[in-house]
Amino acid sequence: MKVKICGIMDIETGVAAARYGADAIGFVFADSKRKIREDKAKEIVAHLPKEVFKVGVFVNESMAEMERIASFVGLTHLQLHGDEPAASSETLSKPVIKAISFQGNDHLARFNSFPSEYILLDGPKGKYRGGNGLAFDWSEVNTALIYQKKLILAGGLTTDNVAEAIKTIRPYMVDVSSGVETDGVKDLVKIKAFIEKAKSMD
């Protein structure tokens, strides 16, 4: 099972997460308590293994700005967390992860044809578009509706529930942010435990 640790803000945490087995590291460039400066993200990326995905998280950002940041920082994937039109996704030079909140299967089915390799299925929207730590009922999701996509599961995942989530959804990857934090700060002990638990489900 692949694991993405999102909302990384310092070199030590990013390097440790990769060392523990994270397959993807997420950097938030949209409004969030985890928003990171471009130069800081670039510094972290320089310390990460080549094979680890470096994912930039954006909300309703212009194509030109996403491309500029991706080039400057060294991103490998672009995660679109807003209301970006399909046409814009088709023009981006990096693989796209389209993030959506689960709002029922009728809504989910509309994204099978969205021009992205990945669909990130997140919990309900809170103050921010993502990273709110809100789970949803995984048993309601009909994953067959997005059979063309690699499914990334996010939203309220923790070490305690990730095994059940993986068994229920069988995603390509699980994505965690607040679930590996203590008092709003990434916790290396929790990151290590989460990765070990998720990977034990292979």
What number of domains? 1
**CATH topology description:** TIM Barrel
Unreliable stretches: none
Mean pLDDT: 94
Gross morphology is: globular
Biggest pleated-sheet summary: 8 strands, parallel, barrel
Helix content percent band: 25-40%
- Reading the helices and strands in chain order gives EHEHEHEHEHEEHEEEH
CATH class: Alpha Beta
Give an account of the 3D structure.
This protein has about 200 residues and is of the alpha/beta class. The protein has a single domain, classed as Aldolase class I (TIM Barrel, Alpha-Beta Barrel), CATH 3.20.20. About 30% of the residues lie in helices and about 20% in strands. The protein is built from seven helices and ten strands. It has helices at about 10-20, 40-45, 65-75, 85-90, 105-110, 160-170, 190-200, and strands at about 1-5, 25-30, 55-60, 75-80, 95-100, 120, 150-155, 175, 180, 185. The strands form two sheets. An eight-stranded parallel beta barrel has the order 1-2-3-4-5-6-7-8, surrounded by four helices. Helix 3 links the parallel strand 3 and strand 4 (about 75-80). Helix 1 (about 10-20) runs parallel beside helix 7 (about 190-200). The longest helix is centred in the last third of the chain and has 12 residues, at about 190-200. It is globular and about 40 Å long. The termini are close together. The relative contact order is 0.17. The mean pLDDT is about 95.
